[in-house]
Structure formats: structure tokens, C-alpha cells
Amino acid sequence: MAILHNLGFPRIGENRELKFALEKYWRKEIDEPTLLAKAEQVKQQRLAQQSYLDYAQIGDFSLYDNVLDSSFLLGHIPAKVKHLENTDHSSQLESYFAVARGAQPKNDSCCAISAAEMTKWFDTNYHYIVPELNDEVRFSLNPKPLIQQVIQSRKQGYNPKPVIIGPLTYLWLSKTKDGSSQLAYLEKLLPLYTELLGEFAKCGVEWVQIDEPILATELTDDWQWAFKFAYQSLISRKTKLLLTTYFGELKENLTLACQLPIDGLHIDAVRAPDEVSRIEKMLPNDKVLSVGIIDGRNIWKSDLTAKLDILEPLQLSRGQKLWIAPSCSLIHVPISLERENKLPEEVKNWLAFAVDKLDELQLINQALLQGRECIAEALQNNALSIQTRHHSALVNDAQVAQNMEQIDNIIQAQRSPFAQRQVQQRQELNLPLLPTTTIGSFPQTGDIRAVRKQFKTGQINQTQYQEKIKAEIHACIQKQEALGLDVLVHGEAERNDMVEYFGQQLNGFTFSQLGWVQSYGSRCVKPPIIFGDVSRQSAMTVDWINYAQSLTNKPVKGMLTGPVTILNWSFVRDDQARADTCMQIALAIREEVQDLERSGVKIIQIDEAAFREGLPLHKQHWQAYLDNSVNAFKVCSNVVADNTQIHTHMCYSDFNAIIKQIAQMDADVITIETSRSDMALLGVFDSYQYPNEIGPGVYDIHSPNIPSVEAILALLEQASTKIPVENLWVNPDCGLKTRNWDEVTPALKNMLEATKIARARFNQSVA
């Protein structure tokens, strides 16, 4: 009989209870005990939903981020927040959230605390808080919260399997400001892991899940050596280690992983199916082989027959040393299909969310134990569902296939060189030095959400809804004009989400009601489901943008989400190449760009916030992904005249390795996140001259902190040393929808005041 286990489970609660409790706590509407009580309730709910597993994973729950949890577990707490724990009325939770979100000063005697840097977790849309390494780092184990969870779960009858991030992955995820190797800190860190495993042993823990997903990336010789050194140093442990890898192939790390002194190895058999047989032969027979057989990253039903074809030979060779699980943590998918009663029934029958995936795992295990005959009906229904999906008229559109035949010709179309376009655009727009703008969205207030809900539930009709949204757009334009911004936006009051809004107006998409997935902290998204060929039904944004432009003489940007971001932030069909789906979306967005330009819009922003996110973990696959992504952007943008300015936006990613490909997108203006890293991302421009205009974000919108004029001015001056001042724009890091007006208004005032000072300094130098 195979052992059933899981690597991780959604932690926001079935009704996003944790999200709402966190936000109430941050607004000071509830106290710490109330927040922790709600968190405990969600924890217990999660355990109950997985109660039939042979092991209950402990430690995958978090109030904000698991990497940040690891930092506090290891005593790796930034010096800038340590003073908070020395006050009479503070707790570690205050320090924890100060690292994650920043903190305003409580009085005149202390300064605001800036949030730690945040970036994407491998190639997912989950964001983690980046640990910072420097000479002042002193690790100190703080295992009590995790040990208490282990003890409590055992008392409740569960068999706990603690989940921790491995020492190599933790260091690899960290950053050093001086450019030194993270491995310099390994010897300081390893004694804490030894101590932690000892604490688990005292609690009677049999297995510890130690996550090392960097084994699915390209590791240099020194990192491979570090793996051998680190795990050899942990060999005296009294608990068993299940080393978990996921998100891709092990490739050159395969032999290393199989030979490490561990007790079991988990592999991603969904993304790396061809490695299963090799690993089975190479991994010693006395070690557990955990096979990640169910896709933890997407929402399609598994082909159970195909999964059994893989597992049955392994069961014969491994026996009780075979474990089965999802490929990775299920945090990347929604919780359950049970209450999804508005999905098209045919499409719903093709899906499996987190709870449903664990049900699939149970069926597979039952077949391994008793034979396929015992689940014959389930296998038959599963096969029918798989077959129906592949042949469904909902999936296949002959017109889209015909349009795709022209894609190569469309990609080849070229705009004039940027220098020529730039002259025409400056004449057309007549903007000042250091033009100011925002990324697109403004606060999604309670009033806006109420209007959207009223329309959705039929309390107001289409005309009433449009009038209310127009009123919000009008107010947004007035506020921007009062502030003095140069290029305005309509504020996106009509959009619940930058991807969902477009998906709702495109063929080939559907949406869940409750399919929320955590992006970071309390931020949750409800990814669209791309089940079929994609095409545009009609204009999606033109009327709203034209209305906003009618209210002002300043240029208003047309705001679109790009094809790569729509792809990467959706659950994508797996029955055709992702590249083909991306191009279908690009053709749809191209039509919208054409309509916006025809209506007189002179600046069109095609956001590609997730451009970097989809980059494969192995460099040998980079070129194909980048070529397709750049081409998809060009399909959208190369249709406009030279005097129409194309913008794009990218956020929270390290772009340095792909800056040349980003330049190949040939957007007239790109805006990027740089404030949390203190403009460190602009270091690439020391060796690469970016050819077009760029707006490095000058303040962090993911923090409630209001930036000072001096701080923004300092960032602008840093940026001016990397980018010609005449090509520099001024803007926040990202959209402002998650903030409130009390934060946005003073922050933008300070941004504009800093710009005014900078213009006075830079105008002279430009002249």
C-alpha cells in the first residue's frame, strides 16, 4: 500500500477568512488574539479536509509568507524591526508584519520602516519576502511556534509531518547587498537545522519534509557541493528526511539528489515524467520514492488511467517505499469545486481543485491496493470526462484556427525605429521633462465594490451601473488633475481584476465563483480558466477610456492587460501548447489596440506584469519562451502608428538576465518595480544601454507607508545616473487598487513635489 501525503494546502480559508481577518487586524479593528483565533480555526479546517492522509503536514500554514516564517524561525530578523520587540506593548507579530508590509512611525522619535523586498516564488504568481544577508546576520533558532503545532496535532490524533524550507533553498532565495555568495552563510545556518531536527525528534516526529525546489534549477558546482556538505552535516539526526523537489526536471542535479544522505525523495512527475524511471533505478531501494503524480499547479482532472500506468510498476518495485502526492503544494489552486454552482456544467466536469485532487489521490491509492476493478466505475467516468473535453465544441473554434494561420506575417510587421517614433510622440504629446503618471488602477473603494455587487445581483440595471462607474471615473480624473499628474488614467473602477476583466469578455474563458488563490499576504486572485480557443467578442475598454478622455485635455492612457500576463495569471488549457494559447490572446488584444487608436487614444499601455514570471527554470528553455513572449507583445503593439505611444508595465521580478529581450519588445515606455530594491534592478544599465524610455517605480504601493519627498527624490537621482534624464518617467511601482485614498493622495503629492524639485535640477543639466 502506498503512503498518501500532501506537500501543502491553501491557507486562506474556504471563504477567505484569513484574508479578511488580516485586513481587519491591520486596520486595528480586531486585536492579536482575535486574529490568531481565526487563524487557528482555518488551520483546523485544513487539517480536517486532509484527515485521511497518512501524514498531516505541519508548518505549511502562514499568516503572510512561508519564507518570512522561515526567517523568523531561524532568527533571521532585519535589524530595522528588532527594536519593536523591545517595547512594552509589542509582539513578534508586529515585527513580522513590519518586515512584510513596512510600518509607519508611532511617534516623532522613530522613522518609518520600509518593507522588505518581495519577488516571485520560482515561476509562479506567489510572492515571497526576500531574506537579506549581511555581516550583521546572527541566526538564532526560535522553534517554539512550530513545535507547539506539532504537539497539538499529535494530541488531535494526526501523524504530523513538519514542513520546512531546506537550508540551501533558503539561502538561494536570499540576497546579499554586497554581491557576495549566499553560501558564505551556510556553516552558520546548518547548526540551527540540526537543532531543529533534534526538537522534532523529541516530539516523536518520524518524518520531516524539507523543501529544496532549487534542485529543479541550474546549480553551479559550488551549490552542488554545498548540498553534499549540508546534508552530510545533518546525518546524525533522529528523524527521517523527505527531500522534496518540484516545479520541473532535476536534469544535471538528478544524480546528486538520488545520492544525498536522505531517507526519501519527492519528485515532480507531472512536469518531469521522463525522469521517473531513471530516478526509480538510481534511488537506493531502502529509500522512499515519493511521486508527485497529481498536478498541483493547474485545475484539470487527472487522467487516472495514465497515472496508474506510471505508478503500478513502481509499486511492484518499491512496495511500501512508494509514496504518492500532488506534484507540489496545492497553495497554487483553489480549495474546492463543491460550491461552484455557476460554472458551465460541461466545463466543471473537467476540473479538480485542491480537495478534489486529494480525492483523485485516494482513488489512485485504492486501485494500487485492491486493483483497478475496485474503482472501475470511477475510471470509466474519468476517461469519459477526459475524452469529452478533447472533442468538445466549446474548446475548438475553426475561425480562431484560421486567424492563427496569419500569425507569422503579423509578427514580421515592424514599426519605425524608436528614435523616429520618439520625435513624433514628443510633438504629439508635448510632455515635460520627467513626465508623471500612475500604473493604471486607483483605489477600489467599498463604494465601487458595492456598485459592482449591486449590478451582479440585479439590484441595478446596466444603465444605472454605467452611470455609477462613470461618476467614479469622473472623480478619479478630477483628483489626478488636482494633483497635477501629466498622463492620466481612468482608474479602472469597472474592473474587478486586471486579468478577470478581460477574460470575462473573451471567448474560451470561464470563471469560478470562489476559486481564490493567494498571491501574497492577504492579496488573493481568482484566476480565469482558459478552456478553449480564445477570441474577442467586441470592444472591451474603448467606451470607458473615451469617456475619461472627454473629461480632460491631458492624455489618458488606454489600459490593457497583455497576452503573456493573461496567460500566466490564468489556469491554462493543457491540451495545446501554451505558446499557441498566448498567440490567440495576443490576436484578441491586437483588435482592442486597433479600436483604441481609431477612437483617438494616443497612449496605450499593454501591461506585461507577469512577463518574467513564466521564464522556465532551465536556461535551455528560455529562448523559446522569450521569443514567443516578445512576439506576442509585438502582435498586440505593432499595429499602431508611430505617433501613438505604447507603454508596458512589469513588476516584482529580476529582469537583469533578460533585459535584451525586454528591449526587443520595443515598447516606447516601460515602467518597472524598483523601490523595494532601492533601484538595485537598474544596475543592469551600467553595462546595457536601454534604448527606449523607462519609468522606475519611486515608491512601494504594497506598503501602507507614505514615502517622503526626500526618499523619492533620492531614488530619482539614483535613476538619473543609470538612464538619460530625457528618457526618464516618474511613477509608483504598481497599480494603486489595493491602497486607500488617504494613503494614495499624500504619496502622489510627495511624488509630484519630488519631481518638481528634480526637474529644476535636471532641466539645467539637460539644457
UniProtKB/TrEMBL annotation:
L-homocysteine binds at residues 439-441, 492, 607. Its EC number is 2.1.1.14. One of its GO terms (molecular function) is zinc ion binding. L-methionine binds at residues 439-441, 492, 607. It catalyses: 5-methyltetrahydropteroyltri-L-glutamate + L-homocysteine = tetrahydropteroyltri-L-glutamate + L-methionine. Zn(2+) binds at residues 649, 651, 673, 734. Residues 434-756 form the Cobalamin-independent methionine synthase MetE C-terminal/archaeal domain. Keywords: Amino-acid biosynthesis, Metal-binding, Methionine biosynthesis, Methyltransferase, Repeat, Transferase, Zinc. Its cofactor is Zn(2+). It is an enzyme of class 2 (transferase). Pfam families: Meth_synt_1 (PF08267), Meth_synt_2 (PF01717). This is 5-methyltetrahydropteroyltriglutamate--homocysteine methyltransferase.
